[in-house]
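Re: [ENG-882] Designed sequences occasionally contain unexpected residues at chain ends

Forwarding the minimal case from QA. Structure tokens:
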């Protein structure tokens, strides 16, 4: 479908998201700039997700839960959208103000060299210190524009993007065949990496903020890091092009430790130690998953169902 250059499409994948979806869609309906199209792709929700989406006028596409794929599903929705600017949200990312869309799309409207813009993620009210630290580290208060040449200084961070709150120029996505399918996750970063190689820029817009965080347990931290290791192993071109992830991990550990001391939460030091050991071990095992027993791998992964897919990347 040909995109209309003046139109904006919002795309939201959902699965049993009724706890946050109503708040997200309500905020989107009140934005200073309205989307021309609201598209929801739902993976067999068993709660009120679909009813809530239809209540807000969304066009709902239903797919089987086992058919959901981070890249392929988003590509399908993007290809059929009417807008030239495509906004992606996850079902649990709630706009923090009524001008998020306006702020998020501004860089794309002003500069043709920018292919992606993405917003700031603020910790939820119930966020732990660890969850808040991760958001503060990855989503600072200062906006910036990144380009391919910045990889020598920023490394893998150059290609960092999150589809929890991001806007893409559809014509740019078409140049790289949208999002890569078959990935355990990280379809946003892989697409960003390809667009940077083509000379497009990424705009981080701190003024476009959403509330979005997760209070992961130590086991969940391990599994999340395991999956990051799998992604970096299967998509090794990212590391070869932009640099390895270990340096960023060390910087984050120092940042998190500084927050503990700044807030005088010294009782969190044991959890800090075990949490980061779990992340390190998870990433190390994930990056070497080919050497692990096949039956063990799904138990180590946060996305265990992905390993049952016959089209997964080996």
């Amino acid at each position: 479908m040909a995109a209309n250059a003046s139109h904006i499409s919002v795309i939201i994948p959902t699965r049993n998201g009724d706890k946050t979806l109503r708040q997200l869609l309500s905020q989107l309906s009140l934005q200073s700039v309205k989307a021309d199209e609201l598209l929801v792709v739902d993976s067999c929700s068993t709660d009120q997700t679909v009813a809530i989406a239809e209540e807000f006028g969304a066009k709902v596409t239903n797919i089987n839960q086992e058919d959901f794929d981070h890249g392929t599903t988003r590509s399908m929705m993007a290809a059929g959208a009417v807008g030239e600017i495509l906004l992606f949200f996850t079902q649990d990312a709630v706009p923090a103000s009524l001008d998020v869309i306006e702020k998020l799309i501004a860089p794309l409207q002003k500069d043709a060299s920018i292919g992606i813009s993405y917003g700031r993620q603020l910790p939820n009210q119930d966020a732990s210190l660890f969850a808040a630290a991760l958001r503060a580290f990855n989503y600072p208060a200062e906006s910036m524009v990144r380009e391919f040449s910045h990889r020598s200084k920023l490394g893998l961070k150059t290609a960092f993007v999150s589809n929890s709150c991001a806007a893409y120029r559809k014509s740019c996505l078409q140049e790289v065949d949208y999002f890569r399918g078959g990935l355990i996750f990280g379809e946003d970063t892989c697409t960003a990496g390809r667009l940077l190689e083509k000379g497009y820029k990424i705009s981080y817009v701190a003024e476009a903020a959403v509330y979005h965080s997760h209070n992961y347990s130590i086991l969940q931290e391990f599994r999340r890091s395991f999956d990051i290791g799998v992604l970096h192993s299967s998509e090794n071109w990212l590391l070869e092009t932009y640099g390895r992830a270990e340096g960023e991990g060390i910087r984050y550990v120092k940042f998190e430790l500084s927050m503990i001391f700044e807030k005088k939460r010294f009782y969190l030091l044991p959890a800090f130690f075990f949490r980061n050991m779990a992340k390190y071990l998870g990433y190390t095992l994930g990056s070497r998953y080919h050497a692990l027993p096949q039956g063990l791998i799904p138990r180590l992964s946060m996305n265990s169902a992905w390993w049952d897919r016959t089209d997964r990347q080996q």
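QA comment: On inspection the terminal residues look reasonable. Residues 218-308 form one domain. Proposing we downgrade this to a documentation issue.
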